[in-house]
Inverse folding.
């Protein structure tokens, strides 16, 4: 018997999914938790409130007038279990120009938006770690493809249609059997409606799937959410069929963060030449060009180290032989600083190796 059911609840035209869990007596119980209205405060460096905003009907916190060409610090009035790694904020300047900004969690309910001038942004050439897809067996491909093909949402909302849950359950089961895998969810929309609303909708839909996987036991650290709104169509938006294909959440099974290509890179060392012993570090940034270690991109983090690997510069912090300290203290602290995609890497005699291999060496 299923352990939970989803119920579509409609009130005054607003749709909500309620999740009811099965009790020992066989009944399904839904408990309503009353939430106060979430507010977002614009604060200064001392923590004093400068402006306050509540979420509008589209799901944005709106600040007006507030320019997007400078950095800002925000404080979210929400319970810890309601916090996300990133929030979208709509800024409207004094001339009425609208800009959607991404503010990342900076610890203690604070979210930071770092403005990078266009020229500096180009010069830094910040990159993400390249995704390494897992080579799936045919039955594993079928589970992933079925989950993608059966995924449907209620019109113009992030409410997952009931018929999609069976396939998502099978996907969850597969991920639970393969704890070394991660899944990347990329949300997209058609071009109906405003670009800002579509950006938020693509985020909410990808996060809705993340929530479903989490409720079925998949660790959220293994689920990566990306969202692009209407910016990357795969078909023309001039036909209903094309728009339907553009409304999607792509799913990609990828290797663990510490995956190291066994083929290496032209025999060159992939780490810190001349270093001896077994060391762990937290990798926080990747760039196509060298970055000044005193750059504001590092947000005041000290003892930054640089290494070159597969044609890109990698930046790390927290060098230590103590994996548990990095995993339980340093890594969470750096993620709260805004490095939400930071992860632990390992090196043996200066060469990068998988973390799993490093832990095995420690235990031998």
């Amino acid at each position: 018997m299923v352990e939970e059911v989803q119920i579509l609840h409609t009130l005054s035209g607003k749709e909500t999914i309620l999740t009811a869990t099965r009790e020992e007596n066989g009944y399904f119980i839904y408990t309503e938790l009353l939430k106060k209205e979430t507010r977002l405060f614009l604060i200064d460096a001392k923590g004093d409130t400068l402006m306050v905003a509540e979420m509008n009907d589209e799901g944005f916190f709106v600040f007006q007038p507030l320019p997007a060409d400078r950095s800002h610090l925000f404080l979210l009035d929400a319970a810890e279990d309601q916090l996300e790694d990133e929030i979208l904020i709509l800024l409207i300047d004094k001339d009425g120009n609208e800009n959607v900004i991404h503010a990342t969690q900076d610890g203690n309910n604070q979210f930071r938006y770092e403005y990078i001038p266009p020229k500096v942004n180009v010069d830094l050439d910040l990159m993400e770690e390249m995704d390494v897809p897992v080579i799936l067996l045919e039955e594993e491909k079928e589970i992933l493809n079925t989950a993608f093909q059966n995924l449907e949402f209620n019109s113009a909302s992030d409410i997952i249609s009931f018929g999609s849950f069976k396939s998502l359950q099978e996907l969850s089961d597969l991920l639970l059997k393969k704890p070394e895998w991660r899944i990347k969810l990329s949300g997209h929309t058609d071009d109906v409606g405003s670009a800002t609303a579509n950006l938020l909708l693509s985020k909410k839909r990808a996060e809705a799937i993340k929530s479903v996987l989490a409720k079925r036991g998949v660790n959220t650290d293994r689920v990566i959410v990306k969202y692009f709104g209407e910016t990357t169509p795969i078909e023309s938006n001039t036909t209903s069929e094309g728009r339907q294909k553009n409304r999607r959440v792509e799913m990609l099974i990828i290797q663990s963060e510490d995956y190291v290509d066994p083929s290496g890179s032209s025999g060159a060392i992939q780490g810190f030449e001349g270093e001896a012993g077994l060391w762990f570090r937290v990798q926080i940034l990747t760039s196509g060009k060298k970055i000044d270690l005193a750059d504001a991109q590092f947000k005041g983090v000290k003892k930054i180290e640089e290494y070159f690997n597969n044609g890109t510069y990698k930046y790390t912090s927290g060098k230590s032989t103590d994996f548990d300290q990095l995993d339980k203290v340093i890594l969470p602290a750096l993620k709260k600083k805004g490095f939400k995609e930071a992860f632990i890497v390992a090196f043996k005699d200066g060469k990068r190796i998988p973390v799993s291999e490093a832990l095995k060496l420690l235990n031998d």
Remarks:
- The chain has four domains: 1-34, 39-116, 131-254, 278-363.
- The two ends are 43 Å apart (CA to CA).
- Confidence is low (pLDDT under 50) at residues 265-269.
- Residues 278-363 form a domain with the Alpha-Beta Plaits fold (CATH 3.30.70.1070).
